[in-house]
Structures are given as C-alpha cells and as structure tokens.
Write a structure and sequence with these properties.
384 residues; globular; Peroxisomal Thiolase, Chain A, domain 1; two-stranded antiparallel sheet
C-alpha cells in the first residue's frame, strides 16, 4: 500500500491518476479454438444449404484460419466470461445466467473487482471516493445505472453515472473525472470500465468473429493534494467525435427486432473495416499531434504510447506518424495479442501493465478511438 497524503489536504483543482486496476476473466479462447468452432459452424451451414449454394441462390460461407485472424488484427487470443457456449457451434454466443434483482450484476461484479485493485494500489479507502463513472461501450440494462450499483457495492457516498462513447468511453470518463476535480465538485473519482464485449459480437461472422474479448478496468482520478506520492500528472486531455455509420450496433429497447428479423446482423457489432482504418488513422494521428503542440510537448520525445487495442496495423501507423519513426514494443506496447479488442478498456490495460517501469519526468499518452467516431487523448507525466 502506497503512502497517501491526508484526505483533509486542501483542494488544488489539479487532477492526477493515482492508480489503476484490472480484472481479467479466467477463461481464454485461442485463435485455434475459435477457428475450429467457426469452421464447424460453416461446414454445417454449407451442408444444410448445399442445394441453394449449388443453384447460385446462396453463397457458401468461407472458412476462417489462424493465419487470416493474425494478419487481419494481430490478435492471438481473448479472455471471455463464458467460453464453452461461444465455442459450441450450436450456440456461438455467451450464456450468462440472469441474476435476481437482489444479486450483484455481472458487470458490477467485475467492475468492483477492478475498482478494488485500483483503490488498494493507491492506498485509498472507498469512503474517500466522491463519485463513480461507469464508462463502457455496452450496459447490461438501462437503469438503475451500473455506476450506482458499483458505488453501492463499494460503499461509496456521493454519486455515480453511466457514460457510453463506445471504444473511447474510458478516456472520456477520465476527462470528465478530471473536470469534476478542476471544478471542485470532487476530490476522488473512480472511472470503471467493465467491458463484456463478447455479448455484442457476431461469432458467426468470419470478418469479425475474432475481434472482441472481456475485461474490466478502473482508473482512480484524484486531486493531487490527496494523491499518493507516486502518481501521474494529467497534463491535458482532448476529446473528439465525428458521426460515422462505419461501426454500428442497432440493438436497443427501441430497436428490438421483430420475430422474423430477430437474428439480424446489425443488432450486433458490424463495421466497414477498411473504411474505419482509412478514416480513423489520420484523424487520430493529427489529433494527437495538434494536442501535443497545444501542450508544448514534443511528440517525438514521448516515452510511451498506450494506444487503443483494436488493430495492430492501425497502432503501428498512428505511432509512426506521432513519433516520426517505427515504434518499438517498448514505445508502443500491445496487449491486443492476448486480450483481443476490449473496447474502451484496451488502452487502460496497456497503461496498467506497461507503466511501472517509467521514471519521474517520463511523459506518455493514453489514447482511444473507435465507434462514433470517437477519440480521446490523455497526456500524462510520471511523478514520485
């Protein structure tokens, strides 16, 4: 437990990141396991529709492969909350039993686990936290807010609210928490991102069946006056949204499909991957460079980039544009290979797992980008 300054310290209005937390599901699916499941499904589908395929009235499903997945994404495995049903060719989606209203929900449960780790790493008691933001790409219900349930489970006074900006939810949450502190409305805010993204993925779609995994992260944003001696100064944050249909999910209580369209693909994750790649890479790279210039930071001297973990190729190009050279694994670490795309949690996992080795004065960037389009940057500097 780190040494923490007194919670009665004067409010400075200067936000910092005190600690992070991570919950990782015990189960993991390798590409080989995933390919075997998908190909078994494709074989059954093609056999069942053999006559229509032969007559040219239907197209045969193409098979997936480990080589295809790794070339397209860089992903080698992903953690999930419900492995067996996902790999069952007759099911191919997670099966998470519904819980009673008097039981903690699955999203709150994993969010609490990540939050408790962040609190422990900061030497902070939950009673000292003023607010909880549940920032994630999918919520398992409309209300009560997931954040309020997490708040209640942790024993936190104050308030909680949910926010959804898809893959940028966590960075949007960090800026919101920082703004609360700057305004004097809070001294300590938990930004919790429980991402059960296996539930919105179409595991029967060859072009995307390998993308997502499950996880939960937490970021404790606090006034520097109460933060641990070792922390991360938040030098500046920048958010950006541009409307695009190239990543979309139409599921919602106003868009529940009629029985004849209950399996409609657009009620799950859909994307135009090439368009996303072409449009998002230059947008995000320029956003980073513009914000670095505003803050007086030389981008080529950034010690580390913790980028959104969605696609290895996108990260390589963005890092190159920012740093001015091909980034090493040390400069732009990846967790994509073992976690898959975990939506808003991805850049936070990278920061959580690859930041302890930095020294006082080192400057880095947490960056997210995804559906919306949405993008967020958080420039930080190590202290302590």
């Amino acid at each position: 437990m780190q040494e923490t300054q007194s919670s009665t310290a004067a409010h400075t209005g200067r936000p910092v990141i005190s600690a992070t937390g991570l919950f990782t599901p015990a189960e993991s699916i390798t590409n080989a396991e995933l390919v075997a499941s998908f190909n078994a499904f494709a074989e059954r589908h093609n056999a069942a529709h053999a006559d229509a395929i032969a007559a040219g009235k239907a197209e045969a499903l193409a098979y997936s492969s480990v080589e295809f997945i790794e070339k397209a994404s860089g992903i080698k495995a992903r953690h999930v909350m419900s492995k067996a049903p996902i790999l069952d060719p007759d099911v191919m989606c997670p099966r998470l039993p519904e819980r009673g209203n008097d039981e903690v929900s699955i999203m709150a449960e994993i969010g609490v686990a990540a939050a408790r780790q962040a609190l422990e790493r900061a030497g902070r008691d939950a009673k000292d936290v003023d607010a909880v933001l549940c920032a994630a790409s999918n919520m398992q219900r409309a209300y009560p807010a997931m954040a309020i349930e997490i708040q209640q489970a942790l024993g936190i006074e104050g308030f909680g609210l949910d926010m959804n900006v898809a893959c940028s939810s966590a960075t949007f949450g960090i800026q919101t928490a920082a703004d609360y502190i700057r305004a004097g409305n809070a001294k300590s805010v938990l930004v919790v991102s429980p991402e059960i993204t296996s539930g919105h993925l179409n595991w029967r779609d060859r072009d995307s069946h390998f993308i997502f995994g499950d996880v939960a992260t937490a970021v404790l944003v606090e006034d520097v006056g109460i933060a641990p001696a070792e922390h991360w100064d938040i030098l500046g944050t920048k958010l950006k949204t541009v409307f695009s249909n190239n990543i979309r999910n139409n599921f919602g209580f106003l868009n529940r499909a009629a029985p004849e369209t209950a399996g409609a693909a657009d009620k799950l994750f859909v994307q135009e991957g090439r368009k996303v790649f072409k449009e998002v890479v230059p947008m995000v790279a320029q956003m980073i460079l513009d914000e670095a210039a505003r803050l007086g930071i030389d981008p080529e001297r950034l010690r580390r980039l913790w980028l959104h973990q969605a696609n290895a190729g996108m990260n390589r190009l963005i890092a190159h544009k920012v740093l001015g050279h091909e980034a090493s694994e040390d400069e732009s670490p990846t967790v994509l290979d073992t976690y898959g795309n975990t939506s808003s949690a991805g850049s936070i996992i990278a920061f959580h797992q690859h930041s302890d080795d930095l020294v006082t004065g080192d400057t880095g960037l947490i960056c997210s980008f995804g559906a919306g389009y949405s993008a967020g940057t958080v420039f930080v500097r190590k202290r302590g």
